[in-house]
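So, can you check what follows?
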Amino acid sequence: MTTQAQTTPASLTYRSMRVGTVRRLTRHLVRITFTGEDLRDFTDVAPDQYLKVFFPLRDEERPRLPPPISGDVMSWYRTYLAMPDDVRPPMRTYTVRAFRAEVPELDIDFVLHPDSGPAARWAASAAPGAEVAFLGPSGLYAVPRDTDWQLLVGDESAIPAIGAILESLPAGFPARVFVEVDSAEHELRLDTAGEVDVRWVHRGGARHGAAVLAAVRTAAFPAGQPYAWLSGEAGMVKFLRRHLVRERGVDKRAITFTGYWRLGRSEEEQGREQVRKIDAGEPPDEVD
């Protein structure tokens, strides 16, 4: 008889990992290094690869997971949402900042704020040995062959992926980077062999995304064919992509975009809204 692990791709199979070390990068950013035997068959798929991470509820040692995915992912997601509130584990999407297969170890950076959700609250007090589960990885970064330079734009939530992308660039490859953060204390050193110009855009009291959109609009772009990677708050991504396509003439096929989060909504609330739209026959949320 064929087992579930044999019939389900690794990216759709639950795996567990434990906290190894915790390191504060800034006052609002913590890097957690995970370990575990389930990471031994982990395969890198892209520099911006991400996981669906399941966290335990308060006073639990490990998350209680829904039944394994056996076919349709949407059916599985409905089952997950139908779990009682006192049982359903919080699920959030996080970028893999780095993976070291020889150990094996996996790093995830967590943004911490006073109004953070259950995953960030877990991360704020995580200690060695704490256990989570995950599905993945998946990735979106895909550079066309004729690309002359890259444009990377995001907010705090996109910093881990931007950092991983920059580390993957070939020596001397040109890139322009715009990252919107609250203030200078959120800035990080980003290493790369590429020829990269990084601009940290401080939000201050402006609406989320307004400052980075203004910075991109007034920027002088290099000559040649760009590849753009846009991630962060969904509304910000929407207006950035619209600017690149309508005002800069960038080919839609040369833009990778994803809303990591939506202002005023949790990931679970976004998921419920998408399910509702599917059930009602309405079109899903669009970026442009």
